[in-house]
Amino acid sequence: MAVRITVHYLCCIFLLFLLISAPFVASAPQTSGSVEVVVHLSVNIRHLSRNSLRAIFGMRLRAWQDGSPIRVFVLPDDAPLHNLFAKEKLNIFPYQLRSAWDRLIFSGTGQAPFLVSSEEEMRVRVATTPGAIGYLKRVNIDDSIQILHVHVE
């Protein structure tokens, strides 16, 4: 009987430890796997608010401050990096982006972003399209594109 109570007690302590440590593990910063917003080298902006980024990826903001058109590139809805980007950088769920794009398309008032099939294609398309914006893992960023820093207002 005493052994059974001890095992039960140890299991409860272990589960309590897991519950307490879970938020710290989940919020630990990611280094090489973290997602960054990237733009073409012709884009003269280095910092952008989260609200402006939402407007760009929601296809509501269509031109940069200098008047040049914004070309938005995204990965498929089921891509893990797309989910991470939507949650981490835009602070919304991916289905909310899809809903906004569908609403623009079906109402005839806008268009969806350009869809790329891989992170490598994302890097190439952003690097070769003036005014382009997209997102990549930090490890996939090179000198052909630049990082756009996003800040919370």
Keywords:
six-stranded mixed β-sheet; D-Maltodextrin-Binding Protein, domain 2; 153 residues; 5 helices; globular; alpha/beta; 6 strands
Secondary-structure map with pairings?
Elements: H1 2-26, E1 35-39, E2 47-49, H2 50-57, E3 71-74, H3 80-90, H4 94-107, E4 114-115, H5 119-128, E5 132-137, E6 146-151
Parallel strand pairs: 2-6, 3-4, 3-5
Antiparallel strand pairs: 1-5, 1-6
SS content category:
alpha/beta
Instruction: Return the domain count.
Output: 1
Give me the number of helical elements: 5
**Overall geometric form:** globular
Distance between the termini: 58 Å
Query: Could you tell me the number of beta strands?
Result: 6
Give the uncertain stretches in residue-range form: 22-32
What is the CATH C-level name? Alpha Beta
Biggest beta sheet summary: 6 strands, mixed
CA radius of gyration:
21 Å
Query: Can you tell me the CATH topology?
Result: D-Maltodextrin-Binding Protein, domain 2
CATH architecture verdict = 3-Layer(aba) Sandwich
Helical content stands at: 40-55%
In sequence order, what are the helices and strands, one letter per element?
HEEHEHHEHEE
